[in-house]
């Protein structure tokens, strides 16, 4: 199911004018704070009635201002996951889940409760009340409640923002499973580069209420001209397969026939991974380097270069493993005479890739 969104709305000092398509999977709305991400999600949810717009998927029309169609929020068949779980405190987890199912239309295709409970790992929590749950557990229950309401679309507005790093690491794999195992499209708001790289099927980048880029995650994140979260958040995403685990604590991966070594990854051989490589962790060399401690050396061809406003530059390198971005100084780019079409080597330290930047493909 392809969701098509086109919305225009004017506020004092800010206007929203966006249009994009959200295919099945996770469509991440990314961009700096104040770019219009939450405003857009509220328009899709019906919490904001825009001046003009059309939000539809085939014959399922949520909004069409030209035809006077403006469905109320409770008629839109949406599952909404907020920053906090917003569970009913007087109900058990089992009862909170049943509350979502109670609102599902009788003729709707429903998710199986047992499957949702297993997928989210909340079986041991069913008889607890929200006060006895951690933040990550509450979010998993909130996701389950949204799924069991038989939604035609799931909205997640920065669902990890209120969690600490440990809880974020706990909850992200469940969103990865949703992306790969649930047919309902998911609109996911985030300004975290790691979340975008791990979760997104499609990325829509907003800036000042406008769409500045949209497309498959690898294409958008590999564009050296985009920096939705700032220069330090620039990075590309690679897809790799777990080859083997070594006794010295390293996991060997394979991407496009090239080997990558990372600190041990909790995934079985044969598993597919998405890995975010931050641009500031990549060094470039004109010749294949020798005698380095860094284990990952990817040969490739410079596809694009972008000079920043300050002393930095972003270099996009196409390798057999996929596109890699390197953030270097303009002085280095000049000294090395870097230019599109030139063959160079990307050098990546194994320990530079954080565990939070590695996600599973189910």
TrEMBL record:
Keywords: ATP-binding, Cell inner membrane, Cell membrane, Membrane, Molybdenum, Nucleotide-binding, Translocase, Transport. Residues 1-233 form the ABC transporter domain. It holds the Pfam family ABC_tran. InterPro entries: AAA+_ATPase, ABC_transporter-like_ATP-bd, ABC_transporter-like_CS, Mo/tungstate-bd_C_term_dom, ModC_ABC_ATP-bd, Molybdenum_import_ModC, Mop_domain, P-loop_NTPase. One of its GO terms (molecular function) is ATP binding. Residues 291-357 form the Mop domain. GO terms for cellular component: membrane. It comes from the Bacteria. This is ABC-type molybdenum uptake system ATPase component ModC. The lineage of its organism: Bacteria, Pseudomonadati, Pseudomonadota, Alphaproteobacteria, Rhodobacterales. The gene is modC.
């Amino acid at each position: 199911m392809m969701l098509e969104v086109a919305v225009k709305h004017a506020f004092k000092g800010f206007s929203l004018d966006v249009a994009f398509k959200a295919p099945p999977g996770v469509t991440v709305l990314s961009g700096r704070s104040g770019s219009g991400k939450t405003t857009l999600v509220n328009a899709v949810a019906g919490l904001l009635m825009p001046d003009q717009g059309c939000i539809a998927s085939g014959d399922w029309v949520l909004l069409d201002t030209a035809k006077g169609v403006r469905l109320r929020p409770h008629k839109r068949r949406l599952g909404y996951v907020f920053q906090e779980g917003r569970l009913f405190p007087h109900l058990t987890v089992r009862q909170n889940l049943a509350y979502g199912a109670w609102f599902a239309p009788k003729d709707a295709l429903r998710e199986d409760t047992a499957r949702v409970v297993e997928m989210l790992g909340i079986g041991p929590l069913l008889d607890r009340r929200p006060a006895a749950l951690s933040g990550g557990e509450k979010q998993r229950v909130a996701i389950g409640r949204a799924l069991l309401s038989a939604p035609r679309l799931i909205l997640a507005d920065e669902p990890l923002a209120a969690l600490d790093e440990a809880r974020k690491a706990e909850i992200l794999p469940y969103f990865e499973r949703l992306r790969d195992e649930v047919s309902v499209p998911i609109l996911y708001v985030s300004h975290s580069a790691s979340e975008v790289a791990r979760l997104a099927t499609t990325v829509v980048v907003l800036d000042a209420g406008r769409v500045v880029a949209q497309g498959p995650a690898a294409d958008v994140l590999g564009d050296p001209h985009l920096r939705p979260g700032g220069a330090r958040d620039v990075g590309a995403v690679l897809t790799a397969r777990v080859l083997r685990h070594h006794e010295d604590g390293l996991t060997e991966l394979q991407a496009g026939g090239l080997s990558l070594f990372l600190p041990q990854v909790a995934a079985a051989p044969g598993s597919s991974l998405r890995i975010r490589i931050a641009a500031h962790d990549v060094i470039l060399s004109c010749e294949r380097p020798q005698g380095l401690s860094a284990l990952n050396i990817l040969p490739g061809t410079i596809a694009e270069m972008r000079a920043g406003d300050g002393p930095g530059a972003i270099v996009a390198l196409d390798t057999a493993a996929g596109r890699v971005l390197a953030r270097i100084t303009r002085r280095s780019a000049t000294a090395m005479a870097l230019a599109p079409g030139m063959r160079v080597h990307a050098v990546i330290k194994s320990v530079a890739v954080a565990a939070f930047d590695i996600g599973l493909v189910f």
